[in-house]
C-alpha cells in the first residue's frame, strides 16, 4: 500500500470537460497523473462510487464547501477520484456543481486504485472492484499526508481533517 513519502504511481485518469480550456477539449480527456501533478500541491480524495450516499451527501460536498480554504492553504487543485466511467463522473460533477472547484477524475479500470494498493472489493454488493475511501496531500506527486478509512467508515478522509493537517 502507498505510504507517506511515496510518489503517486503514474497512471492515466479520465476527466469529462464541458468547456474547452487549458488544452482540454470538450468531452472525455486523458489526464496523465505524472504531468498533472508536476510542480503542484494537490488535495486528492477517493470515494468508492459516484452518486453513492456517503460520497454524495458528505464526502464530496465537504470539499466543495471548503474549496476556498484549501486554496488559501496553498493547495493548487482538489481532485476527487473514483472507479467509475468518465461519463458518470461528468454527470456527478454537473449534479454537485464542482466546476472550477474540484476535478472529478475517473479511474475507470481501477489502475490508480490497484497501483496504490487502495482497492476495495464490493463485488458482494454489486459494485465490483472499487477504490477505498481515503484522502491525501501530494506535493509534486509525493504523498505528504495520507488518511485511509476502515471498511464502511467515514472518519478521517473528510475535508476538515485534511485541511487541519495541511494547516498544522
TrEMBL record:
InterPro entries: PRX5-like, Redoxin, Thioredoxin-like_sf, Thioredoxin_domain. One of its GO terms (cellular component) is cytoplasm. SUPFAM superfamilies: Thioredoxin-like. It catalyses: a hydroperoxide + 2 glutathione = an alcohol + glutathione disulfide + H2O. Residues 2-168 form the Thioredoxin domain. Its EC number is 1.11.1.27. One of its GO terms (molecular function) is thioredoxin peroxidase activity. One of its GO terms (biological process) is cellular response to oxidative stress. Keywords: Antioxidant, Oxidoreductase, Peroxidase, Redox-active center. The active site is at residue 55. Coiled coil: none annotated. Thiol-specific peroxidase that catalyzes the reduction of hydrogen peroxide and organic hydroperoxides to water and alcohols, respectively. Plays a role in cell protection against oxidative stress by detoxifying peroxides. Belongs to the peroxiredoxin family. Prx5 subfamily. This is Glutathione-dependent peroxiredoxin. It comes from Serpentinimonas raichei.
Amino acid at each position: 500500500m502507498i505510504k507517506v513519502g511515496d510518489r503517486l504511481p503514474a497512471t492515466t485518469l479520465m476527466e469529462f470537460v464541458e468547456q474547452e480550456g487549458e488544452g482540454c477539449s470538450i468531452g472525455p480527456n486523458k489526464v496523465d497523473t505524472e504531468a498533472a501533478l508536476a510542480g503542484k500541491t494537490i488535495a486528492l480524495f477517493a470515494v468508492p462510487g459516484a452518486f453513492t450516499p456517503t460520497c454524495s451527501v458528505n464526502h464530496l460536498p465537504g470539499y466543495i464547501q471548503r474549496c476556498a480554504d484549501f486554496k488559501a492553504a496553498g493547495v493548487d487543485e482538489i481532485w476527487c477520484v473514483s472507479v467509475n466511467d468518465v461519463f458518470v463522473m461528468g454527470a456527478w460533477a454537473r449534479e454537485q456543481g464542482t466546476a472550477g472547484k474540484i476535478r472529478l477524475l475517473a479511474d475507470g479500470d481501477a489502475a490508480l486504485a490497484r497501483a496504490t494498493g487502495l482497492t476495495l472489493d464490493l463485488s458482494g454488493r454489486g459494485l465490483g472492484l472499487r477504490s477505498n475511501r481515503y484522502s491525501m496531500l501530494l506535493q509534486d506527486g509525493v504523498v505528504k499526508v495520507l488518511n485511509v478509512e476502515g471498511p464502511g467508515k467515514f472518519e478521517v478522509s473528510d475535508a476538515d481533517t485534511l485541511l487541519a493537517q495541511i494547516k498544522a
